[in-house]
C-alpha cells in the first residue's frame, strides 16, 4: 500500500516573488482600469469620450510597462541568487533561438520557399537545404 511522502518541489517567495506578484497585480489592475475608463468614456454622456479612451489606453500601457519592469527586476534577483548558489523563487526565462534562411552566396535572408535569392538572383538548389533545427 502506498503513502504520501512530503517532498520539497521547489522554492517560493523571496523579494523576487514579491516583485513578480506585484508586476502581475499591476498588469491586471491596469488593464481592468484602462478598459473601465475607456468604457465609461464611451457610455457616459457627462465625460469627454476621446479623453477617457486615450486615458484608458495610457493606463493599460503603463500597466504593461510596469509589469515588464517588475518582472525584469525579479529576474535580475533570480539570476544574482543563482550565480551566488542561493535558492530562488520562480523561474528564469530562457531565450529561444530564432532560425531563418540566408543565401549561401551573399548572406541575404530569404524565405524558406524562395527558389531564387531576391538580392543576388542566384538560383537555390532545392535538394541542398539545411534544416536550421
Ligand atoms: Zn544571394
- Which molecules are bound in this entry? zinc ion
Biggest sheet architecture: 2 strands, antiparallel
Radius of gyration: 25 Å
The tally of domains stands at: 2
Low-confidence spans: pLDDT under 50, at least 5 residues? none
Structure explained in plain terms:
- The protein has 2 domains: 14-83; 96-133, no CATH class.
- Helix content is 49%, strand content 3%.
- It has helices spanning 14-43, 49-83, and strands spanning 101-102, 109-110.
- It has a two-stranded antiparallel ribbon with strand order 1-2.
- Helix 1 runs antiparallel to helix 2 (49-83).
- The protein is flat, with a radius of gyration of 25 Å.
- 13% of the residues are buried.
Short description:
The protein has 133 residues and is mostly helical. It contains two helices and two strands; from the N terminus they run H-H-E-E. The site of zinc ion has 8 residues, from loops.
What is the element layout, followed by pairings?
Elements (H helix, E strand, L loop, with lengths): L13 H30 L5 H35 L17 E2 L6 E2 L23
Antiparallel strand pairs: 1-2
Helix pairs in contact: 1-2
